[in-house]
Amino acid sequence: MTSNASLALSLRLRVRNTTSHVDSSFSDIFKQLDFAFATTFEADKGRWRILLDENYVNLGTVGSGPLGRRTVEVEPTLNFLEFGASYAPVVIANKEGSAGQPLPPVFSLEIIGGGRFTHFGLGWSRQTRRMSKGAAILSTSSSVTVRKFDRIPQ
């Protein structure tokens, strides 16, 4: 997977023996965007600090098969949740700062630990049109979920 400053996406996706090439610009991805959410939270007290970072993206697209008989709706979701804590056993204060205008420390040593939860979900539904006098639509749906949990080394 390749990502550059213009937020384009270029990759090869392989499922068993079938490989597909994806090459999408930022505008292509933005057109398929259903919902996105990102937030970060950080709090500290004394030498302790905690952090939480959440990113969620929900995309969606519709395509049809080679004969135009089947319509497939695809809805990939991607979620990154990162969390951590730190403790600073060594802090050398900046003596040029004052209580009214504190300056960052000259030197600090922090012990940091945390983790990352990654979830990629792929939901899809297939609609088959029957060719008859009365139009009937038969639909089925399924989803695929891949979960990964990474522990950040301390």
Mean pLDDT: 75
Low-pLDDT ranges: 1-5, 129-149
What's the structural domain tally?
Answer: 1
Shape: elongated
**Count of DSSP-assigned helices:** 1
H/E series: EEEHEEEEEE
**Sheet having the most strands:** 6 strands, antiparallel
Query: What proportion strand?
Result: over 45%
Helical content, roughly?
under 10%
How far apart lie the N and C ends?
27 Å
Task: Determine Rg (CA atoms, Å).
Answer: 24 Å
Which structural class is indicated by helix and strand composition? mainly beta
Count of extended strands? 9
Explain how this protein is built:
- With about 150 residues, the chain is mainly β.
- The chain has one domain (about 5-150).
- It is built from 1 helix and 9 strands.
- It has one helix at about 25-30; strands at about 1-5, 10-15, 20-25, 35-45, 50-60, 60-65, 70-90, 105-130, 135-150.
- The strands form 2 sheets. Strands 4, 5, 6, 7, 8 and 9 form a 6-stranded antiparallel beta sheet that branches. It has a 3-stranded antiparallel beta sheet with strand order 1-2-3.
- β1 (about 1-5) and β2 form a beta hairpin.
- The longest helix is centred in the first third of the chain and has 6 residues, at about 25-30.
